Amino acid sequence: MENNKKPKISDMIATTLEKVREMASANTIIGEAMTTPEGVTIIPVSKLTCGFGAGGSDYNTRHNSNQVLFGGGGGAGIDLTPISFIIIANGNVEILPAAGTVATPAPETNIISTIDKVVDGLPGIVEKLQAFFAKQKEKKAEQTEE
User: Fold this and answer.
1) Is 27 helix (H, G, I), strand (E, B) or coil?
2) 131 — phi, psi (to 5°)?
3) Which of these, 38, 43, 63, 131, is most buried using a 10 Å CB contact count?
4) What is the residue extent of each domain of the chain?
């Protein structure tokens, strides 16, 4: 192979990895901070799992031995699982686990089941957030009374 000719498999792998990098930025793991009207900052934290595979081959044609053909393919899969929320209020930092979160999800977990888990866990998360905000409101009221 000539020095100025890069193998096509390298281009294919580079393109696939670049797309994975675009999807798996640091903002994907530590989400964008949201601030409530009360001044409480909530930052979502997720677990990102990536898989990657590629393969290919150069081969000559039957009828023209000077012509080299390429066949190959590549792919990647990403699973994003919400695991917790970082809550910052009045100088205090608290980590609130997402409802139903496990340390390592089963291998068969896919995006649909992940979305189902998030939707199923929303009432629990909302309750925890409401309790947290109520607690903060009580603290604020106590400080005002003093």
Assistant:
1) helix
2) -65, -40
3) 43
4) 8-145
